[in-house]
Design brief:
wza like fold, Outer membrane lipoprotein wza fold like, three-stranded antiparallel beta sheet, 10 strands, 6 helices, five-stranded mixed beta sheet, alpha+beta
């Protein structure tokens, strides 16, 4: 094009699109760096015992959970027990013992009372969690699925347990939906600020989960912007953000 000659309409459109794409990339770059830091630190304290202390002990067992029971001095009673449809376990010669709705500690007390020994000599744990679930949707490792419920753990603990969030996840768009189907109350929606929980140690939105809660993890701006980028520039964008299909 000669100096002083005005641009053709298609040249203006092409340059405009290029500037828009460049601006979009710069706009979301800061968010991407923050998200990467969240992803990196999300699993850092996976084995923390302080935040989730006591959760497993307050789990309420039910059909078809499997319990691990150890009774001191009574080897025949030590083993794995399936909670039956009627909410009971078969306790050898002592017959059926109703345990559904009880915590592991309460089950230990029921067993000690039934067989006539001290409660300290009975240990009860949950070998397999089968009776209740929570539901994961969106940008999580393993995609959407039902996950065994293991007590009132926090959203962060659950995400750590399932392997973390996917590369396309947006930490500021995590929600917990509590339907209250069993008690007939109004549905509740909680906004979980995962970025603040992980980076600022702000636990105020780190909801403790109940059975059948639904956890939704949204997608990043990169994924949404990519759908608006012209096809000719999309391969470059995908290479930059490593979003190639």
């Amino acid at each position: 094009m000669k100096p002083g000659k005005p641009w053709s309409p298609w040249q203006c459109v092409a340059v405009g699109e290029l500037f828009c794409c460049a601006f979009a990339a710069l706009f979301i770059s800061g968010c991407a760096l923050g998200r990467a830091k969240v992803e990196g630190q999300l699993m850092a304290d996976k084995n923390s015992t302080t935040r989730n202390q006591g959760v497993l002990e307050h789990y309420h067992v039910g059909f078809p959970d499997i319990l691990a029971i150890e009774v001191a001095g009574k080897k025949a009673l030590t083993g794995h027990y399936l909670v039956g449809v009627d909410g009971s376990i078969e306790l050898a010669e002592y017959g059926k013992l109703r345990v559904d709705g009880s915590t592991p500690g309460e089950v230990a007390r029921l067993i000690s009372k039934e067989i006539g020994i001290a409660q300290r000599d009975v240990r009860v744990g949950v070998e397999e969690y089968r009776s209740q679930v929570v539901f994961l949707f969106g940008q999580v490792i393993g995609w959407q699925r039902a996950v065994p419920y293991q007590g009132q753990e926090t959203v962060l603990d659950l995400l750590q347990r399932v392997g973390g969030i996917a590369p396309g996840a947006e930490p500021d768009e995590v929600f917990v939906v509590r339907t209250h189907l069993e008690d007939g109350k109004r549905q509740e929606v909680f906004h979980v600020h995962l970025r603040s929980i992980v980076l600022k140690k702000d636990e105020s939105s780190n909801v403790r989960l109940l059975p059948y809660d639904q956890i939704f993890v949204g997608e990043t701006r990169q994924a949404r912007v990519e759908r608006c980028i012209p096809p000719w520039f999309r391969p470059v964008y995908q290479a930059i953000w490593k979003t190639n299909p």
